[in-house]
Amino acid sequence: MAKRWTNDLTAADVTPEALFWNRRKLLAGMAGAGLGSIAGGAVAEEGLATNTWEEVTSYCNFYEFGTGKEDPSYYAGAMTTSPWSVEIDGLVDNPGSYGFEQILEAMTLEERIYRFRCVEAWSMVIPWQGFELADLLALAGVQDGAKYVAFETLLRPDEMPGVRYPVIDWPYREGLRLDEAMNPLTIMATGIFGKPLPNQNGAPLRLVVPWKYGFKSIKSVVKITLTDQEPPTSWNMANAREYGFYSNVNPNVNHPRWSQASERKIGGGLFAKRQPTLMFNGYEAEVASLYEGMDLAKHF
Ligand SMILES: Nc1nc2c(c(=O)[nH]1)N[C@H]1C(S)=C(S)[C@@H](COP(=O)(O)O)O[C@H]1N2
Ligand SMILES: [Mo]
After folding, report:
1. Global pTM?
2. Cis (ω within 30 of 0) for the bond into 204?
3. 3 domain-assigned
4. What spacing in Å lies between the alpha carbon of 179 and ligand 1's midpoint?
5. Is 101 annotated for ligand binding?
6. Under the GO molecular function aspect, what terms does this record hold (predicted)?
7. What is the CATH number of the domain that holds 158?
8. In terms of residue numbers, what domain contains 186?
9. Residue 173 lies in a domain
10. What is the pLDDT of residue 226?
């Protein structure tokens, strides 16, 4: 499928942790070797360095396996991810069950290095592998009346110890407006760091919407429904005052219980300073037009 978006973060931004910590030393050495302009860009822009495999896979939110950040890395291994299929239904020409292998065969995988910002104000930079959601929706054939896309996560209580607790109304549900879903930034991820997605990060297939707070990026998706109504979403159902349908990263609109103006990048070390949060998580040029004329304090 045609590429509609160019990544502003490149492989050069993927900085191994050792290099990240030694960047000054490295820069000094590179200058003499004439490699300064290549490596320099990557290491000097420290805000764009990716997090480590360890950080991305052991500090997770996947409440089906418990509410602790490390619970998913302990318990998600029990989730059976093969065979896997995604039911696509609602306002589509080709409703049905799409096998994961069948989806992979039809899609072109590419790498996307995205900033990832959680509503609790921590952030990471993650190299995802995946394909544009728009390409999957094209396969299903979106009908004219469709205005929203609803997603559901697997609900399998015997493999998911966390669903015993009514923290949210299971299955985990999320939704996007159709134009948000069709935006080329919106991907279905199948991997991180060039490897298949670990279970704790939402294997085998999860949504990634980089300009929205992390909870919109629903994991281990088994169902996608095209509708003409704004779909109910788990966090909005749990607490509508704190979690809106849109959940765009916005430093000017605070969560009712805390400021959203700054964030802490995971792994920055004990003395790492909080950094200012960017409008739409840094993707303003790509997505601001989707919300023209909307009061973002009201549609948070
Ligand atoms: N099914 C499901 N998807 C989910 C969650 C969850 O609890 N269950 N947590 C969300 C939240 S709050 C965040 S911040 C991200 C975390 O993604 P990561 O663990 O891969 O960093 O997943 C989101 N997707
Ligand atoms: Mo989150």
Report:
1. 0.87
2. yes
3. no
4. 22
5. no
6. metal ion binding; molybdopterin cofactor binding; oxidoreductase activity, acting on a sulfur group of donors, quinone or similar compound as acceptor
7. 3.90.420.10
8. 11-291
9. yes
10. 99
Count of structural domains, the chain: 1
Confidence (pLDDT) at 11: 55
Q: In what order do the strands lie in the sheet with 173-177?
A: 96-99, 85-90, 221-227, 148-153, 173-177
pLDDT at position 10 is: 60
Q: How high is the mean pLDDT in each 10-residue block of the chain (300 residues)?
A: 64 46 38 32 52 96 97 98 98 98 97 96 96 98 98 98 96 98 98 97 98 98 99 97 98 97 88 92 98 97
Residue type, 231: P
Distance 72 CA to ligand 1 centre (A): 10
Does residue 279 form part of some domain? yes
Pocket of ligand 1, candidates 52, 53, 57, 62: which has the most ligand atoms within 8 Å of its Cβ, to mutate?
62
Q: What is the pLDDT of residue 3?
A: 58
Ligand 1 pocket (Cβ < 6 Å) reads: 60-64, 118, 153, 172, 201-202, 214-215, 217-220
Per DSSP, the residues of 41-97 read HHHH-GGGPPPPHHHHHHS---GGG-SSTTHHHHHGGGS--SS-EEEEEESBSS-EE
Give dist(CA 256, CA 261) in Å, integer. 13
Nearest CA to ligand 1 atom 14: 214
pLDDT of 162: 98
DSSP three-state, residue 105: helix
195: left (phi over 0), alpha (psi -120 to 50) or beta: beta
